[in-house]
Amino acid sequence: MGARSLVVLLFLMLILSFSSAYQGKKKQYKPCKQMVLYFHDVLYNGQNAANATSAIVGAPQWGNLTILADKFHFGNVVVFDDPITLDNNFHSKPVGRAQGMYIYDTKNTFTSWLGFTFVLNSTDFQGTLNFMGADPIMVKTRDITVVSGTGDFFMHRGIATIMTDAFEGDVYFRLRVDIKLYECW
Amino acid sequence: MGARSLVVLLFLMLILSFSSAYQGKKKQYKPCKQMVLYFHDVLYNGQNAANATSAIVGAPQWGNLTILADKFHFGNVVVFDDPITLDNNFHSKPVGRAQGMYIYDTKNTFTSWLGFTFVLNSTDFQGTLNFMGADPIMVKTRDITVVSGTGDFFMHRGIATIMTDAFEGDVYFRLRVDIKLYECW
Amino acid sequence: MGARSLVVLLFLMLILSFSSAYQGKKKQYKPCKQMVLYFHDVLYNGQNAANATSAIVGAPQWGNLTILADKFHFGNVVVFDDPITLDNNFHSKPVGRAQGMYIYDTKNTFTSWLGFTFVLNSTDFQGTLNFMGADPIMVKTRDITVVSGTGDFFMHRGIATIMTDAFEGDVYFRLRVDIKLYECW
């Protein structure tokens, strides 16, 4: 092989390596980790103290702390500590807890704003994932963001596609969370 | 061109490509996306239910839910769903909604803490941006952070420089938000 | 040196450059910045208005705004503006303020959810850091996340290991925060 063909080969390898580095770093639209989890919210209504996993802690002037407010619950702030399960069965063994808050924040439809953490403690995962985003509840699937993590999810980021999997009046709902992490360390 | 000059050329190209890659990845202080938006907040005061876009939902012991509290509103929690416009006119056609909460959190000056989402739905942008940060209201321009996004803003991050563009007593304010995204996917 | 050994050498260099790029970008488990700070929280109890740095602004139906609620304070929302110091002395000159909120969110143990900002204004650091995460208070050290920053911490991310450094009833606590930033721009 002559010096010239060597240079050409070298040049091709360089181009190849750059383009693969580029794909691998910033334009990676394929998740580096993915999982589906469910969590279950039982709202305190003044009579279910033993079973409730969440409570209204803020309300607008026209509301109170045992019934979600009029006007699509606008202004209600709810704090929660909800069990996370691998399937849609409320009685399955939890693999962690979803902890944080949601806020109803629209007057003319059901919309909430979410800030919470998945604290995972199972054989598969040890660590936390932090979620933030707007949740247009009436839309079938909606994307919120995974902004950070700890433990197995150190420095991870991504998207969570959520779906209301069940809904029973103002007392119970279950969310399906399809977590796709695009930045993994 | 001899083999020697070819190698030199190649070497120069290598250096060039590395430095540009470096700029493009981590030390990119030039935004990859930039936009200026306004949002408008009309606080519920007990009498403006039809027009209000936000409501006090938390207050310290010395406060209530229709008037911002004494001591620079320390402790007030406000939930909002504010229209976003391209210019400073409240009556312009909204391009989205700013949804989330702000908290007044200082006793001796006006300071707030922000956690909210821009839900954009225009011909230019479809997607959400999530904001978080401290807002020293009395400073002319202040930086908060864009921690994540969805849709057109998938995995984006950056800075938002905010400015109080108008202020009418405790009922209305308008914020100018200069969004500069430095990580774009 | 023959053409063959040149190719081998070249190949080795390629592998080396890839692995170092890989370590430098994504698998960097050594902090690029690190600091230890303390912050001090004095909770308003109805009688300490002058000294209090935080106040209960949300409570469940069984609570109120001057005493943390039964059931491990489940549902209490606290807004704070706490001094940050370089050592564990409450009377040391502050280098900034910790501003935001914490929420007690478990019924059967002490757990909180944190969303707050360090506003740093010292000779060493000018800028803000934003924190988010679940805080299992009874655990000796626990990790929350640094999701973003401004100023000297523009686009930074990382982990904060927190420790309860002192605790006096429901009125005072001091947290030690070991901040390790793994993404620095």
TrEMBL record, chains A, B, C:
First and last residue of the signal peptide: 1-21
Gene3D superfamilies for this protein: Allene oxide cyclase-like
Major site of localization recorded for this protein: secreted
GO biological process terms held by the UniProt record: phenylpropanoid biosynthetic process
Family: Belongs to the plant dirigent protein family.
Name listed for the protein in its UniProt record: Dirigent protein
Biological role: Dirigent proteins impart stereoselectivity on the phenoxy radical-coupling reaction, yielding optically active lignans from two molecules of coniferyl alcohol in the biosynthesis of lignans, flavonolignans, and alkaloids and thus plays a central role in plant secondary metabolism.
Upper classification of the organism: Eukaryota, Viridiplantae, Streptophyta, Embryophyta, Tracheophyta
Compartments where found: Secreted, Extracellular space, Apoplast
Keyword list, A-Z: Apoplast, Secreted, Signal
Subunit composition and interactions: Homodimer.
UniProt-listed Pfam families: Dirigent
GO CC annotation, single: apoplast
